[in-house]
Amino acid sequence: MGQVRDEAYLQRFGFHVRKLRTEKQLSQYQLADLSNVSRSQIMGIENGTINPTLCTLKAVAEGLSISLTELVEVA
Known about the structure:
By secondary structure, the chain is mainly alpha-helical. It has one domain: 434 Repressor (Amino-terminal Domain), CATH 1.10.260.40. The chain contains 5 helices and no strands. The relative contact order is 0.20. The mean pLDDT is 94.
């Protein structure tokens, strides 16, 4: 069985994360600090170039002060 990677979903998810971050008027650096995730990971998530782990998603949700469910609900 091969690696599962949905490039289109990762792009939509990254756009969603960027939208949530900018709505809260946070820079990538600020979100990285709040979530204890590197800025390069935040950038990679927003650009759709990395597939974050569940623990990273949880940390980003906490940094944004939202639920994990809200973070992963992508239209």
